[in-house]
Write a structure and sequence with these properties.
By secondary structure, the chain is α/β, with parallel strands linked by helices. The protein is 41% helix and 22% strand. It is globular. The N and C termini lie far apart (63 Å). Bound molecules: flavin-adenine dinucleotide (FAD) and 1,4-dihydronicotinamide adenine dinucleotide. Flavin-adenine dinucleotide binds next to helix 2, strand 2, helix 3, strand 6 and helix 11.
């Protein structure tokens, strides 16, 4: 009897597991094959969105696309989860794990969204057209054209700032896009293999194994931490010849790194870097870059300015953002933008000042917030709500005008009262819809990985700010970024990459 009970319990468990798996499989299948999307409707306005980064994608995620004919234009046909990009430079995470094809998510929208893989080269705000150019390797007979818009959202992000320092673009590596991370990964391995080449002089070995990072903002700090981890956990084991010569130096013009973090976290980061043997050179400004050394200026103990030549094998340039040419050009067309230097000046509804029917989100917009993913995502979501509201307002207003005509034509008082009641109801809805206030940024805090499985976090609580650093914060950092990944697919891939790295170490092959 007892055996019979166990057998049935076991069968039930087995069946429910199978049922669960089938249900999950069905969910994935349904997700992969969404229902037919509504086709573009010529009576609706054309909303053109430039870019597929944090700002634009957050907008697209939250937008009711059936209200507009949406066209997305970007040279990148995927969304990139930038917070984990530094981990791709050393192979802790594979780059495809943090990329989400834009078409993957656009096909789940109710109404079809057009996507063109192209750069926007010019925005003519008077003619209301954008000029686009397919800059990819393969070009068809048509590779430049123009796209008219009724409404335009500029979310093209920013470029890497070099401050006109000679040699940076030619010899340095940036860290903004996937190909930057791939270039750095290749270059690290090239430096290591070349340093161990037969008969290499000690001086050349020292140069090749000197990894220099310029810019002590979060990009520079996170990369330096990841690189030192790579050396400690993997390179040192697989290539023991480099163990005594590999070093990482972080150069920062200001008196300290991570200026946006609390003072105690800055100190904690600097102390951790010291323990990790990463050299920090603060108050040192890079002035010139050649293919084998950089020239950096600092003030010595006697107060004299000294220009030092620092040989390097890898140079990563992370000195922040500057305005993209297409944005600069738009700014030059609009008199109201003449005093704006760092990007498009926008009002509290993110509308570009001095232009009609143009909005800007993310790093290319200046709304008095730091250029972060957090800000861009919140701006994108706000704009989507704003556009949804505009569409609803227009819809209700047109319904109201039809009803007021109907009221005039109503045959008797009873019919007039009915229409009046309906109008009253619509007016109440209109009031509710129009209630949306201006954009308000809600800061959730800042997080940064600093190497050796440690992270720093400045987190905003209801009652104030919590500044914390260490290994527990590192687990928080990991879980926060895992939960923020774009899709379940990304989350699974990132998690698997972390496990792979833990078990097998990072891959040191140079592809
Ligand atoms: P982006 O995300 O840069 O997207 C711009 C889009 O525009 C891209 O799709 C690009 O291809 C496209 N584009 C470019 N030129 C054109 C053109 N001419 N025409 C059409 N499209 C164009 N922020 C945080 O809050 N937390 C973090 O942990 C964090 N980590 C970061 C790590 C790294 C390594 C980097 C580089 C940045 C990090 N940031 C982080 C900052 C964050 O990534 C940016 O603030 C954010 O990406 C800005 O979003 P955006 O939409 O304005 O621009
Ligand atoms: P940044 O602007 O934050 O820092 C650049 C640093 O480079 C500055 O401290 C500057 O003093 C220094 N610098 C400039 N020119 C120099 C020179 N010639 N020589 C030496 N040092 C020089 O840039 P970063 O780190 O690229 O970040 C860009 C934006 O992205 C920021 O808003 C940042 O908050 C955000 N971000 C956030 C992350 C996070 O929250 N974990 C990670 C990466 C970026």
């Amino acid at each position: 009897k007892r055996w019979g009970f166990f057998r049935w319990t076991w069968r039930l468990f087995y069946l429910s597991t199978l049922g669960g798996l089938a249900y999950t499989g069905y969910g994935i299948y349904i997700n992969r094959t969404p229902a037919d999307q509504q086709e573009p409707d010529p009576t609706k306005k054309t909303l053109v969105v430039l870019g597929t980064g944090w700002g634009s994608v957050s907008l697209l995620k939250n937008l009711d696309t059936e209200n507009y004919n949406v066209v997305v234009i970007s040279p990148r046909n995927y969304f990139l989860f930038t917070p984990l990009l530094p981990s791709c430079t050393t192979g802790t995470i594979e780059h495809r794990s943090i990329m989400e094809p834009i078409r993957n998510f656009l096909r789940h929208k109710k109404a079809a969204v057009k996507f063109y893989e192209a750069d926007c080269t010019k925005i003519d705000h008077e003619k209301k057209v954008v000029y686009i150019n397919d800059d990819s390797e393969i070009k068809g007979l048509s590779s430049t054209t123009e796209v008219p818009y009724d409404m335009l959202v500029v979310g093209v992000g920013a470029e890497n700032a070099t401050f006109g320092i000679p040699g940076v673009r030619e010899h340095g590596c940036f860290l903004k896009e996937v190909n930057d991370a791939q270039k750095i990964r290749k270059r690290i391995m090239d430096c290591c293999e070349t340093a161990t080449f037969k008969d290499q002089s000690q001086e050349e070995k020292n140069r090749l194994l000197h990894m220099v990072v310029v810019g002590g903002g979060p990009t520079g700090v996170e990369f330096a931490g990841e690189l030192q981890d790579f050396f400690e956990n993997d390179l040192k084991k697989w290539i023991p010849e480099i163990a005594n010569n590999f070093r990482v130096t972080l150069i920062e013009a200001l008196p300290n790194v991570l200026p946006m973090f609390s003072k105690n976290l800055i100190e904690y980061t600097e102390q951790t870097f010291k323990e990790e043997t990463i050299e920090i050179r603060t108050k040192t400004m890079v002035k010139n870059v050649t293919d084998t050394y950089i020239e950096a200026e600092y003030t010595d103990a006697s107060g004299k300015k000294v220009l030092e030549k620092i040989p390097y094998g890898l140079l990563v340039w992370a000195t922040g953002n500057t305005v993209r040419p297409v944005v600069k050009d738009l700014m030059s067309q609009i008199p109201a933008q003449k005093d704006s230097r760092r990007g498009l000046a926008v009002n509290e509804y993110l509308a570009v000042k001095g232009a009609e029917e143009i909005w800007a989100v993310g790093d290319c917009a200046i709304a008095n917030y730091a250029p972060t993913a957090q800000v861009a995502a919140q701006e994108g979501a706000f704009l989507a709500r704003h556009f949804n509201q505009l569409a609803k307002t227009e819809q209700i207003e047109s319904q109201l005008s039809i009803l007021s005509e109907d009221q005039g034509k109503a045959p008797n008082q009873e019919a007039r009262d009915l229409v009046f009641a309906e109008m009253k109801d619509l007016q109440r809805r209109l009031k509710r819809v129009k209630q949306m206030g201006p954009f308000e940024y809600s800061h959730q805090g800042s997080l940064a990985y600093i190497g050796s499985e440690k992270a720093v976090a400045d987190i905003s609580w209801l009652t104030g700010n919590l500044a914390t650093g260490g290994q527990l914060t590192y687990f928080f950092w990991r879980s926060a970024y895992l939960s923020m990944c774009f899709s379940t697919r990304n989350r699974v891939l990132v998690f698997v990459d972390w496990m792979k790295t833990k078990i097998f170490g990072r891959d040191v092959s140079r592809e």
